[in-house]
TrEMBL record:
The chain crosses the membrane at residues 21-45, 61-81, 88-111, 117-139, 146-165, 177-196, 266-287, 299-319, 331-351, 357-379, 391-410, 422-445. GO terms for cellular component: basolateral plasma membrane. InterPro entries: MFS, MFS_dom, MFS_trans_sf, Proton-linked_MCT. The keyword Membrane applies. The gene is Slc16a5. The keyword Cytoplasm does not apply. It comes from Pampusana beccarii (Western bronze ground-dove). This is MOT6 protein. GO terms for molecular function: monocarboxylic acid transmembrane transporter activity.
Amino acid sequence: MSPGGAAGHGAAKPQDRGWAWMVLLATVLLQGLTLGYPPCIGVFFTDLQREFQASNSETSWFPSIMVAVLHGGGPLCSILVKRFGCRFAVMLGGLLSGVGMVSSSFCGSIGQLYLTAGFITGLGLCFSFQAGVTMLGYYFVRWRTLANAIASTGVSLGFTLWPLLSRYLLDEMGWRNTFLIFGGILLNCCVCGAIMRPVQLAPGLPRQSPKPAEELGRRAEGAQLSNGASSPHPELRQQSRRTACFQTLQKYLAFDIFCQNKGYQIYTVGVTWMMMGFALPHVYLVPYATQNGVEERRAALLISIIGFINIFIRPLTGLLSGHSIFTGRRIYLFSLAVLLCGLSNFICVISAEFSVLIVYCIILSIAMSGIGALLFQVLMDVVEMDRFSSALGLFTILESITLLIGPPLTGLLVDITSDFRYVFYTSSFFLVSAALFMGLSFCALQKKPKLKDVSKVPLDNPSKYQHDETPTEPRPESQSPPAVVYVTSI
C-alpha cells in the first residue's frame, strides 16, 4: 500500500515526532525553492532589458507578476488543497513552476515572459509553498511554533544561494540556459511533495456544527427538494445560490471582518500600503549597484548577504515574539521593523560604494526578519482564530495587488528621471508612512474605553486541532471539512 493510502486507512499518524521531521525537512527545502527564488530575478534585470530592448518599467513587470501571483494565489491554493490534498497541490506546483521556467528559456518577447515566468511559475510557487506550510501544520501541534521557525530558515537559505547560483550560471551560459536549469531545479518541489504523506483525522473527534450560513443554505435546498423536481421554486433556487455565493465569500474573503473589526481594517490597509515599497529593493538593488560601478558578481552578493543574515535573525525573532511579554504589543514591534526598513533605504542613497551597500543590506535584513516573523503573528492577534483562514484570504489578495503594481510604477519613474535613487526614496515613503499609520492608529484604538481584548484559546487538547488530509475519503454531509489555512510569507 502506498504511503498516502496507509495514512487514509491505518492508525492516526504520530505528530511532533517520527515522519513529521522528514516533512519539516521537505518544508525547509520547499521554502528555499519557492519564497527564496523571486529575489534572485534582479540578477537578470539588466540582461533581460538588453535582450528585449525593454524599459525599466516593462522589465520590472516580470518579477512583479511572479511575486503577486505567489502571494495572491492563496484562495485558489486553499480550494485545491481541500479538493485534492496538500501532497497533490505541492507536486502540481512543482510541475507548474518547472514548466514555467523551461518555457521562459524559449521566450521571444518580454510579454511572453510575463506569462511563463511570471504567471505560470508564480502560480506553481504559490501552490508548492502554501500547501507545504499547511501540511506542516497537520504534522506539528505541540512544536508548531518551533517547526515554523525552523521552516522559515529555508527562505533565508534561498535568499543566500539563489543569487550566487544565478550570477555564476548567467556568466557561464547566459540567461536562457540558466532559466532552463532553474526549471529542472524547481521540479524538486515534486520530490518534497512526495514526502508529505496525508494525515488521518484523529478518531473520536466531535463533529463540527454547521455555520448559520451553511444551515440556511441546507434549509433552502431541502425545501426545494421536498417539493419535487416537477415543481421547482425559482425563488428558493435563487436564494440557495445567493447563500452559496455569500458562504464562499465569507469563507475565503472576509469582507464582514474588514467592515466590523477596526484592528483588522487598520492592519490590512497598512500592510497593503507597505507592500508598495517593500519589494522595490529586491528588484532594483542589483541594477542600482551595477549602474554605480559595482562589479556584477559583487552586486549579486548583496542579495545573498540579506539572505545569510536572515538565516539566523528570522527564526530567533519569530521565537522571541511568541513570548508572553510581547502579547498585545506585537503590532508596535512590527511597525518599528517597518519603520527601520524604510529608514535604511537612505543609507544606499547617500553612497553606492560596495562597503556602504553592505551596511545597508545588514540593516535591511534585520528589519526584514522582523517583518517576516511578525506579519502573520500580528494578524492572529487582531482576528479570532476561527476566522483566520478567511481573513488571510482578503489580506493576501490586497497585498498582492500592491506587490504587482509597485515595481512597474517605480520603474516608470526611473525611466523618466534616469536615476535609480528614486527607487529607494519611493520605498522609504511607503514604508515609513505605513509604519506611522499602523502604530499611531493602534495606539489610538487601544485608548478607546470600549476596546475588547481577544484572547487566544490555548491548545489544551492538541488532538482537537488535527486534520484529515486524505481527499479520497467520503465525508458525511453533516460533517464540515476542516478549515485549511493558506499562508504567505515575505
